[in-house]
Amino acid sequence: MASFNRVILIGNLTRDPEVKYIPSGMAVAEIGLAVNRYFNDKSTNERKEETTFVDVTLWGRQAELAGEYLAKGRPVMIEGRLQLDTWEDKQSGQKRSKLRVVGETMQFLGSGPGEGGGGGGGGGSRGGSARGGRGQAPASGGNSGGDDFYSGSSFSGGGAPDDDVPF
């Protein structure tokens, strides 16, 4: 039977990205993402919130852009795959494992706390708007920190997407 390993997460960074470079010169960024789930507790009839913390690894240009544009508290969408890391604990000798996301595409959403809501468009993109499709963040600096949304496939450098997708 065929399998499919794909994850899409929208959340806020729990810490500033840690960008390092491997010997080949490729950038690797480690970010922490807090993803919220809202639900109604049937026993108390109250609306509750559950937060899941996810470690994400970004490679190459995605890693460089994360280091340049992202900071703790900023909302972002990550699309990627799950990867299980396994190792042996040096102190106890026990086998350990941890599930992480390897990010393949990234979209910056909205603006972070304390940034005054940013410039331009306002609203809409924070909830995962389809503006820009599945592209990457821009290769150039483009507009600075207050933009609501970045996407490589439709980013024209002028601050607005080229296509007007109705969904």
Give a quick summary of the entry.
The chain has 167 residues and is mainly β. The chain contains one helix and six strands, in the order ββββαββ.
Task: Fill in the keyword field for this structure.
single chain, 167 residues, mainly beta, OB fold (Dihydrolipoamide Acetyltransferase, E2P), 5-stranded mixed barrel, 1 helix, 41% strand, globular
Description:
The protein has 167 residues and is mainly β. A 5-stranded mixed beta barrel has the order 1-3-4-6-5.
Q: Sheet bearing the most strands, described?
A: 5 strands, mixed, barrel
- Percent helix range: under 10%
Order of helices and strands: EEEEHEE
Low-confidence stretches: 114-162
Radius of gyration over all CA atoms, rounded: 18 Å
Strand order in the sheet with the most strands:
1-3-4-6-5
What's the CATH topology name of the domain at 7-39 and 46-127? OB fold (Dihydrolipoamide Acetyltransferase, E2P)
Instruction: Give me the CATH superfamily of the domain at 7-39 and 46-127.
Output: Nucleic acid-binding proteins
Structural class: mainly beta
The percent range for strand residues is 35-45%
Envelope shape = globular
Mean pLDDT: 76
CATH architecture label name of the domain at 7-39 and 46-127:
Beta Barrel
Number of helical regions:
1
- CATH class of the domain at 7-39 and 46-127 reads Mainly Beta
State the distance separating the first and last CA atoms. Answer: 32 Å
The beta-strand count equals 6
